[in-house]
Design goal:
Oligomer: single chain
GO biological process, one term: ATP synthesis coupled electron transport
Strand content: under 5%
Family: Belongs to the complex I subunit 4L family.
Subcellular location: Membrane
Number of helices: 3
CATH architecture: Orthogonal Bundle
Keywords: Membrane, Transmembrane, Transmembrane helix, Transport
InterPro entries: NADH_UbQ_OxRdtase_chain4L/K, NUOK/Mnh_C1-like
Length: about 100
């Protein structure tokens, strides 16, 4: 059996990569991909603790998190399409000019 520390280290690395992507990127598509990385890191933690404690609650919460991620992508793609249609670019810093 693989120790849970390996899973936690992997999840921390993936979460840090996602956080770095959110803080440094201006492209909306890369922003959404970074959020997905952070959600996947949370899923790894949930499943790792679920296996460690012999409980399926973490795996069930992981499925709900995947459903949340799918809904987030569906709404995010709509926002990205609106940004591209209005500005011709998917740079999130241009969204401040979408005010009335």
């Amino acid at each position: 059996m693989v120790p849970p520390q390996y899973y936690l280290l992997l999840a921390a690395a993936i979460f840090c990569i996602g956080l770095f992507g959110i803080l440094t990127r201006r492209n909306a598509l890369l922003f959404l991909m970074s959020v997905e990385l952070m959600l996947n890191a949370a899923n790894i933690n949930l499943v790792a603790f679920s296996v460690y404690w012999g409980n399926v609650t973490g795996q069930t919460l992981s499925l709900f998190t995947m459903a949340l991620a799918a809904a987030e992508v569906a709404i995010g793609i709509g926002i990205i399409l609106t940004l591209y249609r209005n500005f011709g670019d998917v740079d999130v810093t241009d969204a401040a000019s979408m005010r009335w």
